[in-house]
Amino acid sequence: MATVKLTNVKKIYQGKVTAVHDFNLDIADKEFVVFVGPSGCGKSTTLRMVAGLEDISEGTVEIDGVVVNDLQPRDRGVSMVFQNYALYPHLTVYENMAFPLRLQKHPRMSNDEIYERVTSAAKILGITQYLTRKPKALSGGQRQRVAIGRAMVRDSKVFLMDEPLSNLDAKLRNQMRAEIILLRKKIDTTFIYVTHDQTEAMTLGDRIVIMKDGFIMQVGTPAEVFDTPDNLFVAEFIGAPKMNTFKCELLREGDKYFVAPFGAKIEVDGEKGKLLREKDVVPGEIILGVRPEHVAIASRPGPTAIPTTILVNEMMGFEYHLHVLTEDGTELIVRVPTLNLNDEERAKLVAGEPLYITFEGKAMHFFDVESEYNLIYHEEQPVEGEEIIEDAE
Ligand SMILES: Nc1ncnc2c1ncn2[C@@H]1O[C@H](COP(=O)(O)OP(=O)(O)OP(=O)(O)O)[C@@H](O)[C@H]1O
Ligand SMILES: [Mg+2]
Prior knowledge:
The protein is an alpha+beta fold. 26% of the residues lie in helices and 31% in strands. It has ten helices and 20 strands. The protein has a six-stranded mixed beta sheet, with helices on both faces. Strands 13-12-11-14-20 form a five-stranded antiparallel beta sheet. Strand 4 and strand 5 form a beta hairpin. Helix 2 crosses helix 3, helix 2 packs parallel to helix 4 and helix 3 crosses helix 4. Bound molecules: adenosine-5'-triphosphate and magnesium ion. The site of magnesium ion has 2 residues, from helix 1.
């Protein structure tokens, strides 16, 4: 069993730069958690505090219920794979993987035990045939696997990975991503994985922690952060191409809500309309978000259609990414699957052509203009020290 718990963890470098503010997270045994966010948001710093490579300025890190703040890295039961894994060039793959085991003195590990561990890790990683080679005779992906193998041979309760795939080319990265998913099934331990790539986060994580400027912006499953982003930052960070977001009027007529983007008027139908009513959201100016894949092409002009002009058509093969311009000059992105388009339809989807677009209630995300919180899904956190007073019966 290996749970990891971070409580009010803070990192202040040289007494000045606060890299991590008040980080709180409970990681379950065998959970795969991904820290994701733009460069400099504090992902590596947080991971390094768990590993013991960085002092914890405030708060506690617990592994399996034991506070590890003052434990040396080797005593924490963690293994770490870095972006710039350095393999020893003069040692074979076998010896590179055996290296951390040979360092262990108490108790010393027998050669048989080392052989057992290295060969079984090599088998899982599919590098058995390279064990006698030197690293320079391997491809980038194979070297990456050796680095992972070197971390795997140790008895670790938690596996920490900091951008392990970022210096591989795009194709190899996709392949290794799938391998990490399989590897995870085989070694079945607790993982914390750091990346700035939202695709990696979405595909690997049981839960994703989205960070910005040293703060956690949201913690959730891939589906939760995609479908119910807590705030504008998460909405725009998760999903590619990114969500279209623009200021727009939210109207209320009787018990119906409408949005009025770019001269159109579209009812917020379905579940989203119901949630706006339940939350009694105040009409007025909001930020509306619609993902490019949830924008539909309207067959004809009409009150619910937004008139635009196609600026650029990026042909992706299975779909087009249309960059379109509204009449007030806002650029939006529309994803259009190509599979069912005939030649005539394709010929109309070119730069300079007019295009009417629309979207349904279920495609809409609503954000407050000031706070940028999601008007439907953001839950106010109770302020510390303030008691929640329940109605006395
Ligand atoms: N040793 C240090 N001294 C002072 N500031 C530091 C130090 N290490 C990191 N920082 C600062 O702390 C912040 C968080 O850095 P961190 O390396 O954790 O970011 P990151 O999210 O891992 O970014 P990246 O995606 O670029 O790796 C940054 O503003 C960085 O400049
Ligand atoms: Mg980093």
